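**Protein of interest**
===
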Amino acid sequence: MSAKHHRHHHHSHSIPGDKINIKLILVSGKTREFLFTPSSSAAEITQHVYDNWPEEWSDEQFPPTNILRVIYQGRFLHGNVTLGALQLSLGKTTVMHLVARENLPEPNNQGQIKKDKNGEGTCSNCCTIL
């Protein structure tokens, strides 16, 4: 019984040297950290968070569709901006804000707005990665 594979589950503060640790702050002040690669785009970040909505955010307003946006240094990031393009430091933590905003001009998938809104969306959307 080697205890080696337990290490990954602990919230240690050693960030892999090829990853960027993004600390997302909600309007309510709650935070959660996620590891991403420099090639991750802002859209991939919001999609990942949307699909893996943290348990401790369960009392937050979970949007019926992924209208999450990240703000870095006061600016909304366009979905196709990568972390590498922002020249974020590898192996370091970068703080971003996470907000739900419908009204950024994003023409895609208007069709799925009509999901039910009974706010228990902690994991109702987790399994729909098809």
